[in-house]
Specification:
Blueprint (H helix, E strand, L loop, with lengths): L3 H11 L5 H14 L13 H12 L4 H9 L2 H4 L4 H8 L1 H15 L7 H14 L3 H16 L6 H21 L3 H15 L1 H13 L1 H21 L5 E6 L2 H11 L10 E7 L2 H14 L8 E2 L12 E6 L5 E8 H9 L24 H19 L3 H6 L3 H4 L2 E5 L5 E5 L4 H8 L1 H5 L1 E6 L2 E3 L11 E5 L16 H33 L4 H6 L1 H11 L4 H10 L4 H8 L18 H10 L6 E3 L7 E3 L11 E6 L3 E6 L3 H5 L5 E2 L1 E3 L7 E10 L4 H11 L4 E8 L4 E10 L2 H12 L4 E6 L1
Parallel strand pairs: 2-5, 12-14
Antiparallel strand pairs: 1-2, 3-4, 4-5, 6-7, 8-9, 8-10, 11-16, 13-14, 13-15, 17-19, 17-20, 18-19
This protein binds manganese (II) ion.
Length: 727
């Protein structure tokens, strides 16, 4: 097992500014926290985090990542909490540990490729800091290396997860050494027979292959040296899983032993790469169509190399990769190879002189590299498929109860979720169970949440929902529902109102509707498209049914009932416009914006009051307080549910009746109370009664119910005030 000093020395070798004391402290802390815990193999548990830290140093990650590696299982498996970590090691390390812990808690249930891709994206999205993902990969590498003592079911589950999620992620991040190792280890547990077959075949041909490799290496090395190149030539069998895949794809056994060798030539510079290629091709004939230039066109994961296949010794096809040492480092460590450390300033001196924290500097350098890396990619589609970490940050990945992953924009709520599954589910949603806990519709979904929609057959979408859904599809489905529903209601109501108005004028509406000419004439005059529109306009209160009657049957010009000139031809448009104009804001009627609103005089509603709307013939909607007796008299058919728009600023005139004792000075105290509440009395009406009391009615502007309540409370406290109520 690596001890604290081993790890500290490894980190110091590549990050001179590392806080080694913090590293030693993390080592001791984790060792103590895991004390007494054993792995399945019987070893102390701490062997695992110590190995993970070692693997992290192989990737040359910064000291914070190494600390996170040591501490990565502490929160999940011991009594220590995230708070403890933060107190002892700071917020940065605590966040990294927390990120790794969260990744460990994702439950993968992937069945299809598309789902696997979503899981991979989710893992990246949850690793806000790329270091979280790297630490998690190192954790997985150690887990896979030490899986032999686990139960077969667990082995298979973890191996599948590794094959589907973590090996492809290692590939995306360009960490080829992890990708190959994770694939081979998963292969071993997922297809033991195939694994045995391939490894045996590779082993039995080992000697022959070694001779062949030695032959090729010797030929190439001497040729290159003769041309003056300092080249490092090697060859070895490809990793087992790639051989297996090749065998399966070609439906052949392992006969061509040379086919599984990858030869590699490492040289000093890019121009040496191309010159070396020339040397190779002049010695052995290249196979057309097999040359690939990943130097000019790097892979999305930054892999760079020249690949060629030639007819080698014994007329065997051999594959040769040519790259610089620097490119090789990147091929091995991928994104981690881009982590640059500032050299410790010569002479030591002020340490953090200049005010830039060393760890910040490392982080910024990293970010710069990452951005550069992303900018360099040519193909936007590949760019997306690559590790565009911040791009995934705009998305949130959640589960259906069946374990499918669904993707939403950040800020999406269960409403978006329900509508994405089915419009009907969306229309009926009342709430959601999120990870088993009931949450409201406004709940903002988080990565990894399991969402179960709760519905009711009586539920209907409301306009408020538009404010807390994040997908355009949910929004348009809600709008659609509201429009249709409200339109149907208005249509029915408009028709009824018009029928009554026609009956009153002794004209038959059905007759009019049957008479095409007359009807078209009337609609033209009203500038309305069709009969449906006509009813809807009346139902919405945009059009007075009387105006329709006047249009259809103009009154006798000699009669007494002559309508005012303003209602004659041309003026109708004006009337419609007048009615449609929203002069009183602040009221929201389900689905309708352009509705005329007036406040009932009987109860004078104030923002905050529980209110009810009543569609008035030709006058839009009248607002009553819900308890108002007049509101009870209204036709239930014409009642509509409305609410105050919380964002609108409205000032309404209200009246308060204040009953006081009829003594001098009281009125002065009352009016003083108003002014201390910041209220200007617009009108005061005071009357002394015979019973020694005075009744005072004050009229003033007030913004909402809560302000009114405050004033009323203050007034009640004034000495001599007997009663305060809304007039
Ligand atoms: Mn672990």
């Amino acid at each position: 097992m690596l001890n604290a000093e081993d790890i500290a020395q490894r980190v110091r070798a590549y990050q001179p500014s590392a806080d080694l004391d913090l590293l030693r402290k993390a080592y001791a802390f984790a060792e103590r926290a895991h004390e007494g815990q054993k792995r399945k193999s019987g070893e102390p548990y701490f062997v695992h985090p110590a190995s993970v830290a070692g693997i992290i140093t192989d990737l040359r990650l910064d000291h914070a990542s190494v600390c996170a590696g040591l501490l990565h299982d502490v929160v999940e498996d011991t009594l220590a909490t995230k708070k403890d970590i933060e107190r002892e090691f700071g917020a940065e390390i605590a966040e990294l540990v927390d990120g790794v812990t969260k990744l460990s808690q994702i439950n993968f249930v992937s069945k299809e490729d598309k789902q696997a891709e979503n899981f991979r994206k989710m893992v990246v999205a949850m690793s806000r800091d790329i270091r979280v993902l790297l630490v998690k990969l190192c954790d997985r590498v150690d887990n896979m290396r030490t899986m032999e003592h686990m139960k077969p079911e667990a082995q298979e589950r973890i191996a599948r997860e590794t094959m589907e999620i973590y090996a492809p992620l290692a590939n995306r991040l360009g960490i080829m050494k992890f990708k190959s190792e994770l694939e081979d280890l998963s292969f071993k547990y997922l297809e033991p027979d195939g694994y045995a077959e391939v490894s045996e075949a590779v082993a039995t041909t080992q000697k022959e292959r070694d001779r062949y490799i030695a032959d090729v290496v010797k030929t190439l090395s001497s040729r290159l040296a003769g041309q003056g190149f300092a080249a490092d030539v090697s060859g070895r069998a490809k990793h087992l899983y790639s051989i297996w895949r090749k065998m399966k794809a070609n439906q052949v056994g392992l006969e061509a032993v040379h086919d599984i060798i990858a030869f590699r030539i490492l040289v000093e510079s890019v121009s040496d790469c191309y010159a070396t290629l020339g040397v190779v091709h002049s010695k052995w004939t290249p196979i057309p169509g097999r040359f690939k230039d990943y130097i000019a066109l790097p892979k999305p994961n930054m892999y760079q190399s020249l690949h060629t296949t030639v007819i080698g010794p014994g007329r065997e096809r051999i594959e040769i990769q040519i790259r610089t040492h620097e490119m090789h480092k990147v091929a091995d460590a991928g994104i981690a190879a881009h982590w640059k450390y500032k050299e410790r300033a010569a002479g030591g001196g002020g340490g953090n002189a200049g005010g830039v924290d060393a760890s910040d500097e490392a982080r910024f350098g990293w970010l710069r590299q990452l951005m550069q890396w992303q900018k360099d990619l040519k193909d936007p589609a590949e760019f997306l498929e690559g590790v565009k970490v911040d791009l995934f940050q705009d998305e949130v990945y959640v589960f259906t109860p069946k374990g499918e992953v669904r993707v939403f924009p950040r800020g999406a709520t269960p409403i978006d979720f329900a509508y994405q599954i089915h419009s009907e589910l969306g229309n009926r949603i009342t709430g959601a169970r999120v990870n088993g806990k009931i949450e409201p519709l406004r709940y903002k979904m988080r990565n990894g949440d399991v969402i179960e929609v709760m519905t009711s057959t009586t539920q209907q979408p409301s306009k408020d929902w538009l404010e807390f859904c994040a997908t355009t599809s949910a929004r348009s489905k809600i709008r659609n529902f509201l429009r249709t529903e409200q339109r149907e209601k208005s249509l029915k109501l408009g028709k009824e109102l018009l029928e009554r108005e026609f009956a009153r004028a002794s004209i038959s509406l059905p007759k009019l509707l049957k008479n095409d000419n007359e009807l078209r004439h009337a609609l033209e005059q009203l500038k309305i498209g069709n009969v449906e529109e006509l009813f809807v306009s009346i139902g919405y209160g945009k059009l007075d049914p009387k105006a329709v009657v006047t249009t259809v049957a103009p009154p006798d010009p000699n009669g007494k009932d002559t309508p005012p000139a303003s209602l004659k031809e041309g003026a109708l448009e004006g009337l419609v416009r007048k009615v449609t104009k929203r002069d009183e804001g602040g009221i929201r009627l389900n689905g309708i914006d352009d509705v005329l609103v007036r406040y009932a005089k009987c109860c004078n509603p104030l923002p905050g009051d529980d209110i009810l709307g009543f569609i008035t013939r030709g006058r839009g909607v009248t607002i009553h307080r819900r308890g108002c007796t007049k509101a009870f008299d209204t036709d239930p058919e014409r009642r509509v549910e409305i609410s105050w728009d919380s964002k609108a600023k409205i000032n309404r005139t209200v009246q308060l009746k204040v009953v006081t004792a009829n003594r001098p000075g009281i009125l002065a105290n009352v009016s003083h109370t108003f002014s201390t509440q910041g209220i200007n009395i617009a009108e005061a009406n005071c009357r002394a009664g015979d019973d020694g009391r005075a009744v005072n009615v004050f009229t003033f502007m007030c913004s909402d119910l809560s302000q009114l309540k405050v004033v009323m409370k203050a007034l009640q406290k004034v000495t001599g005030v007997v009663e305060v109520e809304r007039a």
